[in-house]
Specification:
The protein has about 250 residues and is mainly beta. The protein is built from 1 helix and 11 strands.
Length: about 250
């Protein structure tokens, strides 16, 4: 049997109770939004305090996304349009760049920089540390070594600009060098010296052969025939001037 409505009791008290419940309720603490979605318009803002935003589907932003705090990506991040970073940017994990990369500012690398492909350097390049080139190197233009630098070839040969006016110095003491007037090759007391109009072959300081454009040919020291060949029945035909030392043929 259905209950009877007490017509002597008013509905106002129940209405006030229900209104108070609506005023103090928090229906969005556990809310679901269906296919019609949620729209914030006319300058409205959704503020998340001490909480988080979790998106398991797709989040589309057609305007500006501004992040003033830390942004962390743990999955795949794909950016197909232009990207501008104006602040300090740190990449702590591996970074793979498959396309063309243009860097207009300064680049500082404190770790190991490894490039396995061809490298084209079109502008000035400066290295202040040790440079090790372990493969075959081809220079198609000049190599300028300035400020007194040496060029070492292996362990036995050095191009040294500090010796005279520049020298090729060998580990056994031999040198090929040039000074203000000559170019010389020497080892110990022996030397070959070439100047303008003069060439000298020297065994030591007192034994040498010199060809001079003005003075002729000079031999200092004994002139010996090591084969000791002899001839008979021939009159002498060579005379040496005792004053000048010149050798003349007798006719």
């Amino acid at each position: 049997m259905a209950g009877l409505d007490d017509l002597s009791r008013g509905e106002l008290k129940d209405i006030l109770r229900r209104l108070r419940t609506l005023e103090t309720a928090s229906p969005l603490q556990n809310a679901s939004i269906g296919s019609n979605g949620l729209r914030v318009y006319d300058g409205g803002v959704i503020t998340i305090q001490n909480g988080g935003l979790s998106v398991t589907g797709t989040a589309s932003i057609t305007g500006t996304l501004q992040a003033d705090g830390t942004v962390a990506f743990t999955g795949t991040f794909t950016q197909s349009g232009p990207t501008t970073f104006t602040g300090d940017t740190k990449l702590n994990g591996p970074t793979h760049i498959n396309g063309t990369t243009d860097i207009a500012g300064n680049v500082t690398a404190t770790g190991t920089f490894t490039n396995n492909g061809p490298t084209n350097l079109n502008g000035p390049t400066k290295t202040t540390g040790t440079l090790s080139v372990e493969g075959v190197t081809t220079l198609k233009n000049d190599l300028n070594v300035t400020t007194g630098g040496k060029v070492k070839v292996g362990s036995a040969m050095t191009l040294d600009p500090s010796v005279s006016s520049g020298a090729l110095v060998f580990s056994n003491g031999a040198q090929v060098f040039t000074d203000a007037t000559t170019i010389q090759m020497f080892k110990g007391t022996s030397a070959v010296q070439v100047a303008n109009g003069t060439a000298t072959l020297q065994g030591n300081g007192s034994n040498y052969m010199r060809s001079d454009s003005a003075a002729g040919n000079t031999i200092a020291g004994p002139l010996k025939n090591t084969f000791h060949s002899t001839i008979s029945g021939v009159a002498a035909n060579v005379y040496m001037d005792p004053v000048t030392g010149a050798i003349k043929r007798i006719v």
